[in-house]
């Protein structure tokens, strides 16, 4: 069981997944909040049945899965609905993340949480690691990866904590503006550092 948890975060397009996968190659278990948040509203889940009870069948696709864009519309129109949804799903996501950390066999765990600081989830981890890039690069990478408009990317970046705020809160920072080879060296150095920290915890 892994007792030491490193919370990995970074804004959209910063390269969190690339960094996480480099840790996974070194044998470290990943616990991904995004994957868990999809699982807790999967077909047949308690999360989905509560959502349908609250919003009605209009939030379902014809195959019985959640219609995410319809749900997104409903919660963005009405702030109280977004709060209701967060109150339902956040405890479920948190509980599942901690459960997966307990089951992990590696020396420490990387918990990937895009909104680590925004949702106060840094309180669950022993150390925080921020993948940092400039807002301009963030925008470029996200537009080419997700084929979304510049305005959409700006809105997403604007809804997340500012770069300065994240930098001031993070214990460790990986600057991801360079080449993948440089990234590998940084991850390996941090991996050795986390192994030491986890053996002392």
Beta-strand content bin? 5-15%
Order of helices and strands: EHEHHHHEEHHHEH
For the sheet with most strands, the description reads: 5 strands, parallel
Distance between the first and last residues' Cα: 13 Å
**CA-atom Rg in angstroms:** 18 Å
By DSSP, the count of extended strands is 5
Q: How many domains, in number, for the residues?
A: 2
Instruction: Please count the helical segments.
Output: 9
CATH topological fold name of the largest domain: Rossmann fold
Shape: globular
Q: Unreliable runs, pLDDT <50, ≥5 residues?
A: none
Mean pLDDT: 90
The level 1 CATH classification of the largest domain is Alpha Beta
Give the strand line-up of the largest sheet.
2-3-1-4-5
**Class of secondary structure makeup:** alpha/beta
- The CATH homologous superfamily of the largest domain is named P-loop containing nucleotide triphosphate hydrolases
Overview of the molecule:
The protein folds into two domains: 1-28 and 107-201, 3-Layer(aba) Sandwich (Rossmann fold), CATH 3.40.50.300; 36-105, no CATH class. It is built from nine helices and five strands. It has helices at residues 16-25, 33-39, 46-55, 68-77, 79-103, 135-146, 150-159, 163-169, 180-200; strands at 5-9, 29-32, 109-112, 127-132, 172-175. The radius of gyration is 18 Å and the shape is globular.
List the helices and strands and how they pair.
Elements: E1 5-9, H1 16-25, E2 29-32, H2 33-39, H3 46-55, H4 68-77, H5 79-103, E3 109-112, E4 127-132, H6 135-146, H7 150-159, H8 163-169, E5 172-175, H9 180-200
Parallel strand pairs: 1-3, 1-4, 2-3, 4-5
């Amino acid at each position: 069981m892994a007792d030491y948890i490193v919370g990995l975060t970074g804004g959209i397009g910063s390269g969190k997944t690339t960094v996480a996968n480099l840790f996974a190659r070194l044998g470290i278990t990943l616990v991904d909040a995004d994957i868990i948040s999809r699982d807790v509203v999967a077909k047949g889940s308690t999360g989905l049945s509560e959502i349908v009870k609250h919003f009605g069948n209009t939030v379902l696709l014809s195959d019985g899965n959640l219609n995410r864009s319809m749900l997104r519309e409903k919660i963005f129109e009405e702030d109280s609905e977004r709060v209701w949804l967060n109150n339902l799903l956040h405890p479920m996501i948190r509980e599942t993340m901690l459960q997966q950390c307990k089951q992990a066999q590696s020396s420490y765990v990387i918990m990937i949480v895009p909104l680590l600081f925004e949702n106060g989830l840094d309180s669950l981890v022993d150390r925080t690691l921020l993948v940092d890039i400039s807002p301009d690069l963030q925008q470029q990478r996200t537009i080419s990866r997700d084929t979304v408009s510049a305005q959409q990317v700006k809105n997403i970046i604007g809804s997340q904590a500012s770069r300065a705020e994240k930098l001031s809160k993070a214990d460790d920072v990986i600057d991801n503006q360079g080449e993948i080879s440089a990234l590998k060296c940084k991850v390996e150095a941090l991996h050795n550092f986390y192994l030491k920290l986890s053996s002392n915890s």
